[in-house]
Batch of 2 targets.
Target 1
Amino acid sequence: MKKDYKGIIFDLDGVICYTDQYHYKAWKMLADKLGIPFDEQINNRLRGVSRMESLEIILEKSEKAYTEEEKVEMAEEKNANYRELLAQMSPKDLSSEVKETLDLLHGTKLLAIGSSSKNTAFILERIGLAGYFDAVADGNDITRSKPDPEVFLIAARRLNLKPQECLVVEDAKAGVDAAVAGGFDCAAVGDAAGYGAATYSLKSVCDLKELA
């Protein structure tokens, strides 16, 4: 690569695969049940943030105040709906271009996942990447969501690498900010492509081959 990175840390959703549609459907099921307006514009605000923080954003439009216990129950209900939808995923949800890129990098770099999702292991299993990465850090490991760098710092530590030795690949501005805050270089794709804080702006994950 342009720098001799020893490791690459990938966000999961929006980078390796796409589960936005399942998140949206699961949150909308909950919002409709509560009688709270919810649309794609609100859903876009949930990208890269934790489940509980996402719930707080949705509840901004609620006329009722809820206890913390009720909020936890809501988040669990949403996740149950989400996991049922995720069960529809298969290796077909991993594009051949992304898999080819991963396989190309796998022989020369240490690869990790750094995701806020608590369902990371389940998603990786569904798309045929269980056990593929050298390290995984996800929502079960962290107390602070992006833009805090915690998840990327844990991933780097599990690779036995320093942040300066790793490249983070992200599709959300909050994820790019998290990488920068942790001292990582960052390649931005998707919605974050062109974001000025990123080290590189890529059209897709496949463009990593151009840097390798």
Target 2
Amino acid sequence: MPWIYGALIVLEGIVIIHLINSKGNPAFKNTWMLLILLFPFVGVVFYLFTKLQPESYFFRNKLTTVHIETQKYRTQNDLTLRAIWASKSAHALLAHYLNNSVGYPTYKNTRVKYFPIGEAKFEEMQIQLKKAKKFIFLEYFIIDEGYMWDTILKILKKKVREGVEVRLLYDGMGCLTTLPKNYPKEMEKYGIKCQVVSSLKPFLSTIQNNRDHRKILVVDGRIAMTGGINLADEYINKKRRFGHWKDTAVMLQGEAVQSFTIMFLEMWNTFSKTPVDYEPYLAPSLHGFKREYGYVIPYADSPFDHENVGEEIYFHIMNHAKKYVHIMTPYLILDNEMITTLTRSAKSGIEVIIIMPHIPDKWYAYALAKTYYKELIEAGVQIYEYNPGFVHAKVFVSDDDTATVGTINLDYRSLYLHFECGVFIYNNSEVLKIEDDFQRTLTKCHKVSLIEVKKRSLFYVIVGKALRIFAPLM
């Protein structure tokens, strides 16, 4: 026993030294070290199990290779870069970072349409699907059989019969309880090519921890949609879950669609045994600038590239705001850097308002979110809760000229662990519509006061503070 105990102490020390010197957010390191110190054997084994997964390394290397293959299709137009530099140099620096670090160029010649509710996006989605002539790509975190998916599937079957190529990607964890295990084979019967991303393999793999949280629709390389809206009835309020469901999305039409086409095909070729060629799906570039469309940067976030793209974009918007930053998010599980940026912005005189759900989908996430309220409110951040129900939107809008809409929540999972995507929009008239939607949503909210925060039950206070210790691993 002394020899076993001694070996365990040595192994524990090696793992902790490795953690301290490893790359990554300190919050993750602290949580792992606490687990290892509290439960030496179990903590070390669990850490090694999650970090030494051959499957994770395989998909990381495959995705890296695929991303390099598409580099020639993701070239930045120098005229566009010079134009955004002349317009707003800070955003030009962001464009440089996104292009050079993760390979997502800035586009002009792209029309943007904002959807303030799931029903509006669903209606437009049907219109665009019916217009498809060549191909349809769908990549979603959750697909649930019901009115919404049945309506879409009916259109997809019809399009396949017309000769349109249809490809479907969905997340194995997100659809664990909503779709049968053999669903890809069922789709193949209809002529729909289907792949599952990160399928669940209990006790055998941790690849499922890196979920495909994206929501992407591409039709003919002509239009692309993204946002928070999955393919399930609660997202269009056909089914009541947690009161009224408030969600948002955007549609792109023009050059920037190409980035979403490539995002989808990269994920397809990473998880598919039969990769496809990219060139048949890419649209020709447009010439000349249409000033009213401004600048659009579609971006993806991967847990494998050591670039926290979504969080960097959120930081950028807050750090360069002059008047206000308005935020909608379903979750508030923050790292130290995000807390510092939010509070510094508010202390600097920037109006920082966050709209959160009043009826949560996960009680424990709500209890955890409440632990941040006091510090944020005392710094001047205004927090509102959406009285009619649940906010699932992921929106930042600032100064009437800058916004981002996508799939990225303000929590550790979205910012560090999941595959995500979004659209950065600058100098486009739809930004004003996003802000108008925020203001209209605000009229249905109540402002959270410090008195309300202090009235939390003792149970919620204890649970929230305890969960905060393990927040990075939730």
